[in-house]
Design brief:
- There is one protein chain.
- The chain is built from 1 helix and 11 strands; from the N terminus they run E-E-E-E-E-E-E-E-E-H-E-E.
- The radius of gyration is 13 Å and the shape is globular.
- Strand 7 and strand 8 form a beta hairpin.
- Helix content is about 5%, strand content about 50%.
- It is mainly beta.
- Strands 2, 4, 5, 6, 9, 10 and 11 form a 7-stranded mixed sheet that branches. Strands 1-3-8-7 form a 4-stranded antiparallel sheet, with no helix packed on it.
Length: about 120
């Protein structure tokens, strides 16, 4: 079992930056791929980014490529999502997720966090 706790959400102006963190506990964190999803009001949850356990393989949604960066610190059992050049449409509840491999996270994670709210204002 893996427990995931997100933090770092908040209110930011368009064009600004935020860094989300997800602290993992439970089974060996470093062996798990990690990722981020988001869900905007009235919309389905969508994939944002994923990283293999080593960090050597990453996937990004087209909508965030070049603006968001996922990274892992296995020593701290933490995964990060650096979000730059934020847009109004990035407003959503952001969820941390984990799975056996990065592609597994993309297609259907095994574990989910509770979410952290990101609101981008004009």
């Amino acid at each position: 079992q893996v427990q995931l706790v997100e933090s770092g959400g908040g209110l930011v102006q368009a064009g600004g930056s935020l860094r989300l963190s997800c602290a993992a506990s439970g089974r060996t964190f470093s062996r798990y791929a990690m990722g981020w999803f988001r869900q905007a009001p009235g919309k389905e949850r969508e994939f944002v980014a994923a990283s293999s356990w080593s960090g050597g393989t990453t996937y990004y949604a087209d909508s965030v490529k070049g603006r968001f960066t996922i990274s892992k610190d296995n020593a701290k059992n933490t995964v990060y999502l650096q979000m730059n050049s934020l847009k109004l449409e990035d407003t959503a509840l952001y969820y941390c997720a984990s799975g056996a491999r990065a592609i597994s996270v993309v297609n259907g994670p095994d574990y989910w966090g509770q979410g952290t709210q990101v609101t981008v204002s004009s």
